[in-house]
């Protein structure tokens, strides 16, 4: 079988540990912890229809969004996995108002890493059996080891990330991540419970013909975005663009990285700072984008350069094939105020 010739995620981590400038068993254990949690979440998702985990949990998260039962389950699975293995000193999650200090054991407080995550992005799609994802971002803490983790450990620029990635629970389950040395994708063989290196060195095509945006919000978009959409649709120039929008960032991103494309969630008249969160959605996806040769901005500024001020702050998000992002940025610059 093909997978027998491919390295597992565990083998890859050990092999690449020397590439990672913070190479220490602790980081390897952190990535292994994320993969274990992802397998548990995967199991819930795959049988959601026959167990009572579909639908809403009956409460709202800090974003004011209806929490799905699986949002809560996935959040608990990742937080428990990270806490029990004493690999991080703190976790911030879309599902929790404030960051969580991990003090489960002496080692936890001495851990150098914090994790920010969206435990189940696009979860409203689960009830209709559409791909969803987990997004994670890893930083070294900046306050002294051995002291309680602080908000400033989480409010770091995206350029400080030591690793970032996502799990896409789709037609197959894949874990895709970077530690700053390119992007690698691993496919889960559920019969063996192992991730195998199926997509080494993933790269965004420099250009593409797929644009992903919720055109239902068209009248609320900035003029530059409207102009870009019309540019893609102009008949006379025979633009073979196609619009693909799954409503799940990880799924749209993953397809665009493989085929070439751009994902846009701009500011709207209703949400002037956009919908997506900077720290645990846009920064990790921007790190992956740049590591795969693409570009990620807020329409004007590099996402990774944005100085965060709040844990759940939002930002407009344009990311994907470099030439496509540059083209929409040109429209954003030239649009009338
Ligand atoms: P809308 C899911 O809630 C999410 O954060 C992304 O995964 C997705 O791309 C976007 O929001 C969908 O938002 O407003 O188009 O339904």
UniProtKB/TrEMBL annotation:
<dbReference type="InterPro" id="IPR028343">
    <property type="entry name" value="FBPtase"/>
</dbReference>
<dbReference type="GO" id="GO:0006000">
    <property type="term" value="P:fructose metabolic process"/>
</dbReference>
<feature type="domain" description="Fructose-1-6-bisphosphatase class 1 C-terminal">
    <location>
        <begin position="205"/>
        <end position="332"/>
    </location>
</feature>
<dbReference type="GO" id="GO:0005829">
    <property type="term" value="C:cytosol"/>
</dbReference>
<dbReference type="InterPro" id="IPR033391">
    <property type="entry name" value="FBPase_N"/>
</dbReference>
<comment type="similarity">
    <text>Belongs to the FBPase class 1 family.</text>
</comment>
<dbReference type="InterPro" id="IPR020548">
    <property type="entry name" value="Fructose_bisphosphatase_AS"/>
</dbReference>
<keyword id="KW-0479">Metal-binding</keyword>
<feature type="binding site">
    <location>
        <position position="245"/>
    </location>
    <ligand>
        <name>substrate</name>
    </ligand>
</feature>
<feature type="binding site">
    <location>
        <position position="281"/>
    </location>
    <ligand>
        <name>Mg(2+) 2</name>
    </ligand>
</feature>
<feature type="binding site">
    <location>
        <position position="214"/>
    </location>
    <ligand>
        <name>substrate</name>
    </ligand>
</feature>
<keyword id="KW-0963">Cytoplasm</keyword>
<feature type="binding site">
    <location>
        <position position="120"/>
    </location>
    <ligand>
        <name>Mg(2+) 1</name>
    </ligand>
</feature>
<feature type="domain" description="Fructose-1-6-bisphosphatase class I N-terminal">
    <location>
        <begin position="8"/>
        <end position="199"/>
    </location>
</feature>
<comment type="pathway">
    <text>Carbohydrate biosynthesis; Calvin cycle.</text>
</comment>
<feature type="binding site">
    <location>
        <position position="118"/>
    </location>
    <ligand>
        <name>Mg(2+) 2</name>
    </ligand>
</feature>
<protein>
    <recommendedName>
        <fullName>Fructose-1,6-bisphosphatase class 1</fullName>
        <ecNumber>3.1.3.11</ecNumber>
    </recommendedName>
</protein>
<dbReference type="GO" id="GO:0005986">
    <property type="term" value="P:sucrose biosynthetic process"/>
</dbReference>
<dbReference type="GO" id="GO:0006002">
    <property type="term" value="P:fructose 6-phosphate metabolic process"/>
</dbReference>
<dbReference type="GO" id="GO:0042132">
    <property type="term" value="F:fructose 1,6-bisphosphate 1-phosphatase activity"/>
</dbReference>
<dbReference type="GO" id="GO:0006094">
    <property type="term" value="P:gluconeogenesis"/>
</dbReference>
<dbReference type="Pfam" id="PF00316">
    <property type="entry name" value="FBPase"/>
</dbReference>
<feature type="binding site">
    <location>
        <position position="275"/>
    </location>
    <ligand>
        <name>substrate</name>
    </ligand>
</feature>
<feature type="binding site">
    <location>
        <position position="121"/>
    </location>
    <ligand>
        <name>Mg(2+) 2</name>
    </ligand>
</feature>
<dbReference type="Pfam" id="PF18913">
    <property type="entry name" value="FBPase_C"/>
</dbReference>
<dbReference type="InterPro" id="IPR044015">
    <property type="entry name" value="FBPase_C_dom"/>
</dbReference>
<dbReference type="GO" id="GO:0000287">
    <property type="term" value="F:magnesium ion binding"/>
</dbReference>
<keyword id="KW-0378">Hydrolase</keyword>
<feature type="binding site">
    <location>
        <position position="118"/>
    </location>
    <ligand>
        <name>Mg(2+) 1</name>
    </ligand>
</feature>
<feature type="binding site">
    <location>
        <begin position="121"/>
        <end position="124"/>
    </location>
    <ligand>
        <name>substrate</name>
    </ligand>
</feature>
<keyword id="KW-0119">Carbohydrate metabolism</keyword>
<dbReference type="GO" id="GO:0030388">
    <property type="term" value="P:fructose 1,6-bisphosphate metabolic process"/>
</dbReference>
<keyword id="KW-0460">Magnesium</keyword>
<comment type="subunit">
    <text>Homotetramer.</text>
</comment>
<dbReference type="InterPro" id="IPR000146">
    <property type="entry name" value="FBPase_class-1"/>
</dbReference>
<feature type="binding site">
    <location>
        <position position="94"/>
    </location>
    <ligand>
        <name>Mg(2+) 1</name>
    </ligand>
</feature>
């Amino acid at each position: 079988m093909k997978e027998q010739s491919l390295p597992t995620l565990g083998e890859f981590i050990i092999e690449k540990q020397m590439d990672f400038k913070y190479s220490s068993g602790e980081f390897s254990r952190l990535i292994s912890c994320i993969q274990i949690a992802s397998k548990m979440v995967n199991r819930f998702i795959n049988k959601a229809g026959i167990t009572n985990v579909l639908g809403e949990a009956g409460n709202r998260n800090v974003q004011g969004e209806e929490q799905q039962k699986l949002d809560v389950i996935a959040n608990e699975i990742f937080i428990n996995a990270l806490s029990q293995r004493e690999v991080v000193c703190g976790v911030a999650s879309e599902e929790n108002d404030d960051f969580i200090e991990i003090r489960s054991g002496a080692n936890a407080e001495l851990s150098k890493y914090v994790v920010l995550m969206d435990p189940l992005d696009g979860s409203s799609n689960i009830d209709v059996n559409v791909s969803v994802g987990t997004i994670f971002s890893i930083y070294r803490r900046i306050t002294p080891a051995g002291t309680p983790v602080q908000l400033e450990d989480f409010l770091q620029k995206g350029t400080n990330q030591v690793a970032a990635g996502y799990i896409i629970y789709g037609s197959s389950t894949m874990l895709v991540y970077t530690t700053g040395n390119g992007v690698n994708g691993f496919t889960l063989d559920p019969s063996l419970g192992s991730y195998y290196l199926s997509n080494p060195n993933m790269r965004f095509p420099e250009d593409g013909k797929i644009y992903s945006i919720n055109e239902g919000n068209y009248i609320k978009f900035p003029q530059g975005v409207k102009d870009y959409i019309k540019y893609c649709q102009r008949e006379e120039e025979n633009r073979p663009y196609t619009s693909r929008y799954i409503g799940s960032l990880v799924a749209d991103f993953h397809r665009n990285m493989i085929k070439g494309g751009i994902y846009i969630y701009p500011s709207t008249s209703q949400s002037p700072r956009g919908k997506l969160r900077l720290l645990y959605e846009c920064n990790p996806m921007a790190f992956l984008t740049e590591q795969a040769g693409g570009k990620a901005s807020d329409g004007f500024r590099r996402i990774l350069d944005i100085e965060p001020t709040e844990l759940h702050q939002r930002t407009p998000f344009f990311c994907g094939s470099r030439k496509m992002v540059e083209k929409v940025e040109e429209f954003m610059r030239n649009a009338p105020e």
